[in-house]
């Protein structure tokens, strides 16, 4: 690499793709916040990579993408090769480029981060794959030889899709079952379209179907089909079930009118604004369908500071709320949500009340919410995971007025009865137990059942679900192809 290229970052500042104008966002535009790079911008930003020789970005990326290599290909305009390289490590790069909290992952580890601004790795990853797909590029499976093996995947979220991608690349037929009518899991039914446009998921479905993946949607295992049926009919089963048990704060007043659980609110709103169901009718297989209240002109308070909380506050802004406040019990530095999303929320007019722990939802008429009683907190000693506990300060209670209160305290997995009946163990926190001594990685206590993603890790990220689905596929192949053929290179990422 020439000297001029090495020092390009000195003259070229970090730049993200243009954002949708603020006036449109606050007026209720649900389009993706970040636009797309044109080729010169992508090449310019990719050229800022130092090629520092110690790619901490790769180490910090959960799927260990070959980041400096594909940045170099973008600089040289070799987009189709870059797309193929992206897919070597990441079955869903266009999703991760959009929704990964890059400030905590690849970009946070970039050598340029502190003094010059990190390379815009996520935006370039999105550019590569969107551009390649638009040019008709598709993964090349021409050398794949069918093995005659067939695996069932339960769950079309990122874990299940990543697993399916890796299996079909190695000649193993895959049928993916999901209880919902569309693929994507929480990427489809959870993450709002201003972060991830749903057409991106539709394109990925077309790509996976083109690779031979079969989807059976609207089929809930345990209701429409038994697990025994899959265990008999398939060589192995991957469980990518997600984590859907709400963390119940047990707040007095949480049953009042105007108090909404976060995920049903986001799901129902997403269905209405994307036009998939403008009337917000109940979703097949979804037990918590919500009648959407009108937020226009209302005072909205969101409890919780994670990604889900940030999606709720920013949705409430787009729905025309008069004021939107996020109350979080720790300080800003300890928020679990991405710093970029917090900055975007603030820019859109969200007020943050840090170090406030909710005590109760209050009502002036005994029927509907009128406010949230909170107490101020200070940070105490770290807990077992190193996070500092929020300790209430005596005598610091106050009430934040609210017409709508959205509770976003997080989720955890729950083992369904039909799975427990097969002897699959879970930890006390509901996470499926996998990879015990003597088992393959991601293999449960049942030989033919493998699992990954949120149902194993607890509620986490798209990219970690992708990594687990991808790596579980390698274990599945090891088992079903034993004695037939060597593990295909596609699985050795
Ligand atoms: P899921 O995506 O939950 O998919 C599980 C699938 O399994 C679902 O489609 C479900 O229908 C299906 N299923 C379950 N049981 C059955 C059954 N019995 N039969 C058939 N199908 C079944 N992560 C990020 O990286 N960035 C973000 O910005 C981000 N924002 C988020 C915002 C919200 C509101 C939420 C809730 C999460 C967010 N996340 C984000 C987290 C991320 O979406 C999840 O970690 C990820 O989707 C987990 O993937 P998964 O495949 O394990 O599970
Ligand atoms: Fe960064 Fe996520 Fe892409 Fe890895 S997958 S390079 S962490 S945006």
From TrEMBL:
Lineage: superkingdom: Bacteria
Domain FAD/NAD(P)-binding: 150-469
Database matches in Pfam families: Fer4_20, Pyr_redox_2
InterPro entries noted in UniProt: DPD_II, FAD/NAD-bd_sf, FAD/NAD-binding_dom, GltD-like, Helical_ferredxn
Keyword entries, A-Z: 4Fe-4S, Iron, Iron-sulfur, Metal-binding, NADP, Oxidoreductase
Domain Dihydroprymidine dehydrogenase intervals: 29-136
Metal-binding as UniProt keyword: yes
Cofactor names: [4Fe-4S] cluster
GO molecular function terms noted in the UniProt entry: 4 iron, 4 sulfur cluster binding; metal ion binding; oxidoreductase activity
Protein name in the entry: FAD-dependent oxidoreductase
Provenance organism: Thermomonas carbonis
